[in-house]
């Protein structure tokens, strides 16, 4: 099992998108799989917690973080997992599309080797990049 940790920036962004009606289907809809009543949000979070692969529908792919964002994740790992700060070589961030390959509802996150997943952003392409 992994621990899912939202960053402060993510918390602010999530609060904003939860108020936006265009995000209702992400938080309250259903994934487009047979026999699964979870929302896309619930599905992804369950996959994170249970260390399960995310269905390819969500188009999970790598992204590049800024130096500042990488430093923040390294600092958080140092605090959360007692990892030696200088020993952290690589921070690999990913994003996924809640609404399929061409969708514009994104989640940015970092999977670590320490069973901690950092949620670092949520929003549309124009809001995040």
Characterization of this structure:
With 129 residues, this protein is of the alpha+beta class. It has one domain (3-128): YaeB-like fold. Helix content is 35%, strand content 20%. It contains 5 helices and 5 strands, in the order βαααβαβββα. The chain has a 5-stranded mixed β-sheet. A hairpin with a 4-residue loop joins strand 4 (106-111) and strand 5. The longest helix has 15 residues, at 67-81. The radius of gyration is 15 Å and the shape is globular. The protein starts with a strand and ends with a helix. The mean pLDDT is 91.
The number of helical elements comes to 5
Q: What proportion of the residues is helical, as a percent range?
A: 25-40%
CATH topology: YaeB-like fold
Low-confidence stretches: none
Strand percentage: 15-25%
The CATH class, by name, is Alpha Beta
**What is the radius of gyration?**
15 Å
| Biggest sheet architecture | 5 strands, mixed
């Amino acid at each position: 099992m992994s621990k899912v940790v939202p960053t402060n920036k993510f918390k602010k962004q999530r609060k904003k998108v939860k108020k936006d009606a265009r995000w209702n289907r992400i938080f309250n809809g259903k994934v487009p799989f047979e026999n699964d009543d979870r929302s896309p949000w619930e599905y992804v979070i369950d996959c994170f917690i249970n260390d399960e692969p995310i269905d390819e529908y969500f188009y999970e792919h790598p992204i590049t973080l800024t130096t500042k964002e990488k430093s923040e994740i390294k600092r958080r790992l140092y605090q959360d997992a007692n990892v030696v700060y200088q020993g952290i070589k690589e921070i690999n961030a990913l994003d996924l599309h809640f609404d399929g390959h061409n969708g514009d509802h994104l989640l940015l996150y970092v999977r670590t080797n320490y069973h901690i997943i950092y949620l670092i952003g949520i929003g549309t392409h124009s809001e995040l990049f």
